[in-house]
Design brief:
Length: 508
C-alpha cells in the first residue's frame, strides 16, 4: 500500500464510522500565538474541546500537516539520526467531541489496524496510564490483548507535564490519560519494549496515541490543582502516517517508505549535480535534506518567509541546516529548492497548495540558498586562513584525515589537539552568519577542536550587553521592541552550541 492509499483508507474507515472528514489546517496556527507551528491534529479543534466553539458534527477525522521543530515538541535534532522522527509529518486523527469515549476509540483503532490494515496482532503492544484501570480492562477483556503486552506507565516525577501517558494542554484546562499503541519491528532492530529502560531504540515504535479528555484541571482557592470530571469526555487521537507506512511496507525506517525513497533519490541527484559528483547514498545528511524539504516547502507554501524572528527564524534554521548538510556532502551551489518539484509531484494530490505555490516556494528557498552559499564562501575563506595559521593539514590531504581521527580520539582525553579559538568561531557566527555547527564540522574534518567554552562565553557576554542596551532604552523611555525575539534567538543558538559539542564528541 502506498502512503497515499494508507491515508485515504484511514479517512474512509472513520467516515464509515460516522466521522466528518475535515481538511488539514495550515502549518501556521490561525489564532494561537502560543503555538509556533501546528504540532498535532487536535490544534484546529482546541476551542471545540474547550466548549468555546461548536461544530455541526460530533465526530471528525483528519490527516493533519504537523511540524515539530521548535517549542514544546521539538524533534529537529533527532532528524536524520532516528528512524522515526521528522520535522514535518502527517498525523492521522479521529476525534470525538463529547460523543464516544474509551471503549469505542480503542475498538475502532484495533479494528482498523488488525482487520483493515491487517497488522499481525502479536506485534502490537499498548500502554495505558498507570491509574487508568478502565483502559487497561478494555485492552485485556474487550479487545483480548494479552496482559504481557499491556504496559502501565505512571507519572514522570518532576516533569512539568505529568507523564508520557497523561496529556495536558497546559497547566489548566482539559486533560486526561492516554493509551499508546506500539508496533514491534522484531528482534533484528535494537530497542526495548515500552516502559523499559531500553525503550529508546527503533524496535518498538509508537504508532498511535489515544488521548481521553476526561478532566478539567483547575486551581482551587487554596492554590492547589484539582481534577474535575468533564461532563462530556472527548477523544483526540494521532497516528503518524510515515510510521504506519513503514510498518505496512515492511521496512524498519520511515526513510525507506515510497515517499522518502523518491525524495532521497532526488536529494542525491540535486546534491551530486551541484558539485558532490557521487555522494554516499546512505549518508544521514541526505535524510536530513529529504526531511527538511517537506518542512520548508509546506511552511513557505502556508505563508512564512525566512527571517530573523519567530516562525521565519525557525524556517531559516531548518533551511540552513539542510544546506549545511548538502555542503558537507560536496554541494557548492543551490540545490535544495530543486526538490520542491519532486515533492509537489509526490504530495501535490493530497496537498494542492504544493502545486499551486510551487514556483513561489522555489524562488523563496533559492534566494535563501544563494545568500547562505555566499555566507559559506566568505566564512570558509576566513576559516581556511585560521586553519592554515594553526598548521592544520589541507582539506584533501590524507594526513588531514588521519589527524582528524586522532583529534576525535583525543577530545575528552588530556592529549593536546590543535584548537580553533572560540572568539573566532563567535566572530564567524556573529559577524558573518557562519554557524558554529559548520565551523565545528569543518574543523573536525581537519583535525582541529573548537573552543566551544570560549564561544559560549562570548555569546553570553553579547546577550548580556544586548539586555543592558534594552534596559537602557526602556529607562530612557524610548520605544523598544523586538528585544525578546533576539534573546530567543540567542538562547536557541546557545543550545545549538551544546548540541554541537555533543555531536562533536560522539562523532555522529
Ligand atoms: P515519540 O515519543 O515517538 O516522540 P510522541 O509521543 O511525541 O512520539 P505524540 O505527541 O503522541 O507523539 O503524537 C502522535 C503520533 O504522531 C505518534 O504516535 C507518532 O506516530 C507521530 N509522531 C510524533 N512525533 C513525530 C515526528 N517527529 N515524526 C513523525 N511522526 C511523529
Ligand atoms: Mg515526541
Ligand atoms: Mg511518545
Ligand atoms: Mg505519544
Amino acid at each position: 500500500m502506498k502512503a497515499s492509499e494508507i491515508r485515504s483508507t484511514f479517512l474512509s474507515f472513520f467516515e464509515g464510522k460516522g466521522h466528518t472528514v475535515v481538511s488539514s489546517s495550515p502549518v501556521i496556527p490561525g489564532d494561537d500565538p502560543t503555538l509556533l507551528f501546528t504540532n498535532a491534529g487536535m490544534n484546529q479543534f482546541k476551542d471545540v474541546f474547550l466548549g468555546f466553539d461548536k461544530r455541526p458534527y460530533m465526530r471528525a477525522a483528519t490527516a493533519q500537516k504537523c511540524i515539530r521543530a521548535g517549542g514544546k515538541h521539538n524533534d529537529l535534532e533527532n532528524v536524520g539520526y532516528t528512524a522515526r522522527h521528522h520535522t514535518f509529518f502527517e498525523m492521522l486523527g479521529n476525534f470525538s467531541f463529547g460523543d464516544y469515549f474509551k471503549r469505542d476509540a480503542l475498538a475502532f483503532a484495533w479494528e482498523l489496524l488488525t482487520e483493515v490494515y491487517k497488522l499481525p496482532k502479536e506485534r502490537l503492544w499498548a500502554t495505558v496510564y498507570a491509574e487508568d484501570d478502565e483502559a487497561y480492562d478494555i485492552w485485556k477483556d474487550v479487545i483480548g490483548l494479552p496482559a504481557e503486552r499491556i504496559v502501565r506507565i505512571g507519572d514522570n516525577k518532576g516533569a512539568r507535564y505529568a507523564s508520557d501517558n497523561f496529556w495536558m494542554m497546559g497547566d489548566t484546562g482539559p486533560c486526561g490519560p492516554c493509551s499508546e499503541i506500539f508496533y514491534d519491528h522484531g528482534p533484528d532492530v535494537a530497542g526495548g519494549p515500552p516502559g523499559s529502560p531500553e525503550q529508546d531504540g527503533d524496535r518498538y515504535i509508537e504508532i498511535w496515541n489515544n488521548v481521553f479528555m476526561q478532566f478539567n484541571r483547575q486551581l482551587d482557592d487554596k492554590g492547589a490543582y484539582q481534577m474535575h470530571p468533564l461532563p462530556k469526555p472527548s477523544v483526540d487521537t494521532g497516528m503518524g502516517l510515515e510510521r504506519l507506512t513503514a510498518v505496512l511496507q515492511h521496512v524498519h525506517s520511515n526513510y525507506e517508505i515510497d515517499l522518502f525513497v523518491t525524495l532521497l533519490a532526488a536529494a542525491k541527484k540535486a546534491v551530486d549535480e551541484s558539485g558532490a559528483k557521487d555522494c554516499d547514498a546512505a549518508s544521514p545528511s541526505l535524510k536530513v535534506i529529504a526531511d527538511h524539504i517537506r518542512a520548508c516547502a509546506f511552511t513557505v507554501a502556508d505563508g512564512v518567509i525566512p527571517g530573523n524572528e519567530g516562525r521565519g527564524y525557525v524556517l531559516r534554521r531548518i533551511t540552513r541546516r539542510a544546506i549545511r548538510h548538502g555542503y558537507k556532502l560536496g554541494a557548492r551551489q543551490p540545490f535544495f529548492h530543486r526538490l520542491v518539484v519532486d515533492l509537489a509531484a509526490e504530495m501535490g494530490d493530497a496537498y494542492p497548495e504544493l502545486r499551486r505555490e510551487k514556483q513561489r516556494v522555489m524562488d523563496v528557498l533559492k534566494q535563501e540558498e544563494e545568500r547562505f552559499f555566499q555566507t559559506i564562501a566568505t566564512g570558509m575563506e576566513i576559516l581556511e586562513r585560521a586553519l592554515a595559521e594553526l598548521g592544520a593539514p589541507g582539506a584533501t590531504d590524507a594526513a588531514g584525515v588521519r589527524a582528524a581521527e586522532q583529534a576525535t580520539d583525543a577530545i575528552g582525553s588530556s592529549a593536546k589537539v590543535r584548537t580553533l579559538s572560540g572568539e573566532l568561531a563567535f566572530q564567524l557566527h556573529d559577524t558573518y552568519g557562519f554557524p558554529l555547527d559548520l565551523t565545528a564540522d569543518v574543523c573536525r574534518e581537519r583535525g582541529v577542536a573548537v573552543d566551544t567554552d570560549a564561544f559560549e562565553a562570548a555569546m553570553k557576554r553579547q546577550r548580556e550587553q544586548a539586555r543592558a542596551a534594552g534596559k537602557f532604552k526602556v529607562a530612557q523611555g524610548l520605544d523598544y521592541t523586538g528585544g525578546d525575539t533576539s534573546f530567543h534567538g540567542y538562547d536557541k543558538l546557545v543550545h545549538d552550541a551544546a548540541t554541537v559539542v555533543a555531536l562533536y564528541v560522539d562523532g555522529s
